[in-house]
Write the structure tokens for this entry.
Amino acid sequence: MSTSATECIFCKIVSGEIPAPHLASNADAIAIADISPVAPTHYLILPRRHEANAIALHRSEPEAMTAIFALVDTLITQSGLSDYRLIFNTGEEAGQSVFHAHLHLIAGRPLSWPPG
Ligand code: 5GP
Ligand code: ZN
């Protein structure tokens, strides 16, 4: 599955065409609240660059991964989180529905393992 950058909802959020408050940001990534949270805390960290998934991003702009994890650090520090889950869903069968790489940061309730 691929989505062109011009049609991509996360590119529109990154550009500001669709407003979404930035919880944190840096030169290469932004953090927003998920519109449909699955836990009391559910943030999304989006690279500014459009790539379909995390490994495509790693291959094309590895420093964007560092930028994404820098925002995780900011968010967990701001929120005082010590227990949380980080997820890159990759591919439809794995639950990916938006084909612009993004990291889920989920916390605030017990999280079962293994995931469903
Ligand atoms: P995926 O299923 O691709 O791993 O995750 C996509 C996530 O994006 C979902 O958790 C969904 O709720 C969230 N999402 C989809 N559209 C929007 C939107 O317009 N704004 C925000 N803040 N989150 C969105
Ligand atoms: Zn995009």
